[in-house]
TrEMBL record:
Keywords: Oxidoreductase. This is NADPH2:quinone reductase. Its EC number is 1.6.5.5. Residues 11-315 form the Enoyl reductase (ER) domain. It is an enzyme of class 1 (oxidoreductase). It holds the Pfam family ADH_N. GO terms for molecular function: quinone reductase (NADPH) activity. InterPro entries: ADH-like_C, ADH-like_N, ER, GroES-like_sf, NAD(P)-bd_dom_sf, Quin_OxRdtase/zeta-crystal_CS, Zn-ADH-like_protein.
Length: 325
């Protein structure tokens, strides 16, 4: 089978190689999956660079989120077992961690529903306890993770402010339903948030960026607000001033979605059921900006790493005879 592999960590365009390798063999408790679609995620870029908290043995195939087909014909969402990631024709995954792909979504949309939307749901509901009528500020609102948070915030009855970088991404955030869109390249985030909220600030901040975005968040979070730290796409990990959190009465909440698989797997199943319901209603739908073929993966991962993509970029694989949908 064909698979993209990393032999030496580095920038995606240089480090990723498309190779012919044997199909992976499932072990006890694992299943083989034909890859129908694989969603590109920022952790894939970090994996290729050797900067992620998980470092699979070399050589490895990245790709942490797929929609696949089991040998017995089930269409499922899965997190492949590294080093056999999703940028390949076949993967292996834990049988107990498979989730049924929602019937309302096609393969590419189903592949993009898992990690980003689960992270958004846990961040907004389990960690921040977002309430109807509250104001939610989402950084990188036109990106894959941010767009999921925007949709989930609107579904929860929040007023959503989206922060983006550039006019094209601003239009995307507007189309997603943001009540206010702030272009950080031309506008001051703090003053715009305070103006829009009558000086109160945002009740909940969803931050997958870090760096300057976190600094702005701390300046415009409301009394008893909550800042959810999701990631550091900027590459800059901030050092929060805890005295500032004390005097302004706000909370800084960390979110590592992967821990729930070990600590509370039942919560992941319950979240997936809720996401499936919202997808069936049409309340949420992954923002697929680009479908790519297998040879285009290295370039697409590089563009994702550089922050030049909008929404979700998804690898769409040719369907084998007998595959449904």
């Amino acid at each position: 089978m064909q698979a993209w592999r990393v032999h030496t960590p580095g920038e995606p365009r240089e480090a990723l190689r498309l190779e012919e390798i044997p199909e992976p063999v499932p072990g006890e408790g694992e299943v083989r999956l034909q890859v129908l679609a694989a969603n590109l995620n920022f952790p894939d870029a970090l994996l290729v660079r050797g900067q992620y908290q998980i470092r699979p043995p070399l050589p490895f195939t990245p790709g942490v989120e797929i929609c696949g087909l089991t040998d017995d014909g089930r269409r499922v969402i899965a997190t492949p077992s590294l080093p056999h990631g999703g940028f390949a024709e076949y993967v292996i995954a834990s049988e107990r961690a498979l989730l049924p792909a929602p019937e309302s979504l096609n393969d590419a949309e189903a592949a993009a529903l898992h990690i980003g939307y689960q992270t958004g749901w846990f961040g907004l509901h389990r960690r921040a306890r977002l309430q109807p009528g509250e104001t939610l500020l989402v950084h990188a609102a036109a990106g894959g993770v941010g767009s999921a948070a925007v949709q989930l915030g609107k579904a929860a009855g929040a007023t959503v402010i989206g922060v983006v970088g550039g006019k094209t991404k601003a239009r995307t955030a507007e189309e997603l339903g943001c009540d206010l869109v702030i272009d950080r390249t031309t506008e001051d985030v703090v003053s715009r948030v305070k103006e829009f909220t009558g000086g109160r600030g945002a009740d909940v901040v969803y931050d997958p960026v870090g760096g300057d975005s976190y600094t702005a968040s701390a300046k415009c979070v409301a009394f008893e607000g909550r800042i959810v730290v999701v990631g550091f796409a900027s590459g800059d990990i901030p050092a929060p001033a805890l005295n500032h959190a004390l005097v302004k009465n706000y909370a800084i909440l960390g979110l590592h979605w992967g821990l729930y698989a070990a600590k509370d797997p039942g919560a992941i199943l319950a979240c997936h059921a809720e996401l499936t319901r919202l997808a069936a209603e049409g309340t949420i739908k992954p923002l697929i900006s680009e479908l790519i073929a297998l040879p285009a993966v290295a370039d697409a991962v590089q563009r994702l790493a550089d922050g030049s993509t909008t929404g979700r970029v998804v690898l769409a694989m040719p369907r084998q005879p007998g595959a449904s949908r």
